[in-house]
Amino acid sequence: MITVSVILPCLNIKNTIRGCLNSINNQKYTQLTTKVEVICIIDGNYEDLEYVKSWEKGNKNMLKIEIRTIFLKNNIGSGHARYLGFQKCTGEFITFIDDDDIWHEEKLETQIKWHISNPTRILSSHFYSNGIDYMNKRMKILKEVSFNNLLIGGVRIATPTIMIRRKIWPFQPEKQRFCEDWLMVIMVASIQKIYVIPKLLAYRSIDAEPIFKDKSSLSNKKIRVRCGKVKALYILYKRDKLNLLNLIALIVFQFFILIKNIPSIVKNQIL
């Protein structure tokens, strides 16, 4: 039997958690026998724990997954929450999803089968849609994403697309609050390229607020994201993944992007 752990940070999930958990529970397996555990890390909001329990109770006769919850009294951010979930999970394969995302019903089986055929590969990804698909067009050309691709930008390994073979993963989820998923992925890319399965297998939930209205969306936290990227770049430097000249150049580039985005940041603040 193949075991899969789904790590799911939960914060203000009232409108989206039902669709998210349904998409995990409704995964189809035509050729594999799979056991799935979902680690829900409740990130400081007691109401979110009740929403998860309510979904579990309402679906008790149709459950194909095991729900495990970790309740945190204080909000620590999705990166640290994923790290704690990873410490408790037991699966051979590790996956991640956010409450405002949905998986295609063939997502898990598609990625597991790829990993079985490629036993030395640590991490796989696939296409993701939040309504803006220019990243997917770029990734269709690349097929595999390298360390340099992620450094320069223009590609995105979205968190809900990640699957990791645990026993050969020499790292763990990063704890920082911003750009933690980028840092986690680029650490893997520093030792091997990341294959992108050319299928759209994850989406932003239709129950989630539009990105431009969602205050929790990273698209509306550009300053914090750029600061998080700078911190992540410095961590790469400390881990001997970047030299000093590259670090300086990349930090300057981050501030250039931030300055370029100032008009849209101001506009969002006004709205």
**Helix content range of the residues, please?**
40-55%
Q: What is the mean predicted local confidence, pLDDT?
A: 88
Q: What's the CATH topology name of the largest domain?
A: Spore Coat Polysaccharide Biosynthesis Protein SpsA, Chain A
Could you state the CATH homologous superfamily of the largest domain? Answer: Spore Coat Polysaccharide Biosynthesis Protein SpsA, Chain A
Q: What is the count of structural domains?
A: 2
Distance between the termini: 51 Å
Shape summary: globular
Which residues form runs of ≥5 with pLDDT under 50?
Answer: none
CATH class of the largest domain: Alpha Beta
User: H/E element string?
Assistant: EHEHEHEEHEHEHEHEHHH
Give the number of helices: 10
